[in-house]
Design a protein that fits this description.
- Strand 4 and strand 5 form a beta hairpin.
- The protein has two domains: 196 residues, no CATH class; 145 residues, Heat Shock Protein 90 (2-Layer Sandwich), CATH 3.30.565.
- The strands form two sheets. It has a five-stranded mixed beta sheet, with helices on one face. A three-stranded antiparallel beta sheet has the order 1-3-8.
- It is of the alpha+beta class.
- The chain is built from twelve helices and eight strands.
Length: 418
């Protein structure tokens, strides 16, 4: 319990929900008071019915008005303070007309004082505590007599004992239930903060990777231009001993490198654009096939239609990171299927060899994986996961029973007219 007290603060609590919970508890207490009054009417107890009824009716009116204050822009914390103050005042009035400090219901001062300390620590909680102490002390002097018929001392003592047990049980239930609810809410908030911290750490890693990529692209542009010029001069001079097909291969690979740098710059400046979905995927995959002739790629869109959608350019690196992983781990065979329905794109990438360990499946997308490839950095899945999450999508990985790994991309896409 001390851990809960030290961890709770008004910043970590949803005050709106706390105010709703207090309102519900107050209605429950008012209902219980009505039952007690009905029971008191059937036993030899004389009560000041009119002032007690007025106190309970006033508290019920305030409790009915408090939810309306939120619609008028009143802060939940102010509503909580008004409600707790009304609880102390109404309880004091009830006690003053039913025995004062001798009434065992005086223990009910504890729940509102505790709730004030949890939800509004500081001046208000200390002020409410001082008010409760002052009024409780005053009730020793100013009060109506204990309402027991015929001044039956034995009956009064027994009723007082029963009342003490009842108020203890009620106070314990109220405080335990409310504090347990606050503790659960705090635990939920801590989990949300942990997820946010992981996301922030991942974003910081991505920013660092992006800066390194930009520096690498800047460093590579000059030597690529130099090599391109040399290759062009060799093509014109045609020196002996250099095969024409080898020179052509060199020039084509240099063009691929230049295009990659150009795409890196273009993707950094281009956001979402309208595309014909499956045609765009087919075109990109054809370009990938030309770079990886050693891989057998099976591509099949599941839909007959080819919708126009708004697609962010960041989707392509995320997709091809996964395709490259599948190609390098799947023995040269990769299967890709795609389906678009109800505004959501689903892409399935399957390689038929290898598998991921339980630790890799658990960590996939949450951090850098321990790559099983000879030159793998283990960043591909993390980058893809982070990019898809930023775009509102998700990535799941699982091992296939027949062998291999199945990666599924789910991405919401907005349809648009051509």
């Amino acid at each position: 319990m001390p851990t809960v007290f030290s961890s709770l603060s008004s910043e970590s609590i949803d005050l709106g929900r706390a105010q709703q919970r207090l309102t519900a508890l107050r209605w429950g207490m008012l209902g219980l008071c009505l039952l007690l009054l009905a029971a008191a009417a059937a036993v030899p107890v004389r009560l000041a019915w009119l002032p007690i009824g007025q106190a309970l009716a006033t508290l019920a009116l305030i409790n009915a008005v408090l939810p309306q204050l939120k619609r008028r822009g009143v802060a939940p914390l102010l509503s909580i303070r008004i409600g707790l103050l009304a609880d102390v005042v109404a309880l004091s009035e009830v006690l003053a007309f039913s025995g004062g400090a001798a009434n065992p219901l005086a223990s009910l001062y504890l729940p509102p004082v505790l709730f004030a300390a949890l939800l509004s620590p500081g001046v208000f909680s200390w002020g409410l505590s001082a008010l409760a102490l002052a009024v409780y002390g005053a009730l020793f002097v100013w009060h109506l007599p204990w309402p027991v018929a015929d001044a039956d001392a034995a009956y009064a003592f027994h009723a007082h004992q029963m009342g003490m047990w009842f108020t203890f049980a009620l106070s314990a239930l109220l405080m335990t239930g409310f504090i347990s609810w606050l503790a659960r809410q705090l635990a939920d908030r801590e989990r949300e903060l942990a997820v946010a911290r992981e996301s922030q750490l991942r974003d910081e890693q991505l920013v660092g990777i992006g800066m390194q990529a930009a520096m690498a692209a800047h460093s590579l542009s000059t030597p690529l231009n130099t090599l391109t010029l040399l290759a062009d001069e060799w093509a014109e001079l045609q020196p002996a001993g250099l095969a024409a097909d080898e020179l052509a291969l060199m020039q084509s690979q240099l063009r691929v490198c230049r295009d990659a740098l150009a795409r890196l710059k273009s993707n950094a400046q281009t956001g979402a654009v309208p595309v014909r979905l499956f045609s765009a995927i087919t075109e990109r995959l054809e370009g990938w096939r030309s770079l990886r002739p050693d891989v057998t790629l099976s591509w099949q869109p599941y839909d007959c239609q080819d919708p126009w959608v708004v697609l962010d350019a960041a989707f392509w690196p995320a997709l091809f990171n996964l395709i490259n992983n599948a190609a390098e781990a799947g023995g040269g065979q990769v299967g890709i299927g795609a389906h678009y329905q109800a505004g959501t794109l689903r892409v399935d990438i399957v390689n038929r060899e290898g598998c991921l360990s339980d630790a890799q499946l658990h960590a996939a997308g949450l951090g850098q994986l321990q790559s099983g490839k000879p030159a793998g950095l283990g960043l591909g899945v993390m980058l893809s996961h982070a990019t898809l999450a930023r775009l509102g999508g998700s990535l799941t990985l699982d091992n296939r029973r027949a062998g291999g790994v199945h990666a599924r991309i789910t991405l919401p896409l907005r349809a648009c007219p051509p």
